[in-house]
Structure formats: C-alpha cells, structure tokens
Amino acid sequence: MKKAAALRYERGKNKAPQLIASGQGLLAEKIIELGAEYGVPLYEQKELVDELLALPVGVEIPPELFQLVAQVFAFVLRLDEEKGRGKGGNGYGQR
After folding, report:
1. Residues whose CB falls within 8 Å of the CB of residue 33, separated by 6 or more in sequence, listed in order
2. pLDDT digits over 26-62, tens only?
C-alpha cells in the first residue's frame, strides 16, 4: 500500500518542519498528485514516512525525527540549487 506525507517549513515562522498531510492508499496517491501539480519534490524514505504517519497532521515534527527530515530538506535544497532557485521549500516523503 502506498504511503505519503508532506512537510512544510517556513523560516522565522516554524521552529521545526510541520506535517501538513499524511495518508495511505488513495489519500497517499492524492497527496502525491497534488504535490506534483504544485512542483513539490518527491523524496522516498520508508522509515520517515512510517514515523510521520503516526503523528497528527498540523504538528511540528519531534526532535527525534530531525535527522531524517534534514535529509529531505537537503535533497530539496540540492534540487533548488540545480534549478537555480536557491530557496528552501517543501519536502515529500513517500513509499
């Protein structure tokens, strides 16, 4: 079964990335579809998405997930730099 979670981090507003959507099956497919529609990068990390699915939507991620989420944001920053945008953004975890 497909699983997905979406994160958002706004520097100056959030202390940590916030879980803005998560789900399995059809909901996961919709999250991925909407992300693609808005140009949100897709990052696959099974361990992270499983941890994120256990959290309620809307919460900032707990410190024990910082290292895994840092990998997502590093991936997004690399993509932005490759595209010449140089900005941070949203990250997606899915499997």
Report:
1. none
2. 999 999 999 999 988 888 999 999 999 999 999 999 9
What is the pTM assigned to this prediction?
0.76
Distance, CA of 16 to CA of 71 (rounded, Å): 14
Residues in the chain: 95
Task: Please calculate the CA angle 53-34-59 and round it to the nearest 5 degrees.
Answer: 35
- Which CATH number does the domain 3-94 belong to among 3.40.1690.10, 3.40.50.300, 3.65.10.10, 2.40.160.20? 3.40.1690.10
Q: Which pairing describes strands 43-44 and 91-94: parallel, antiparallel, or unpaired?
A: parallel
What is the three-class DSSP state of 40? coil
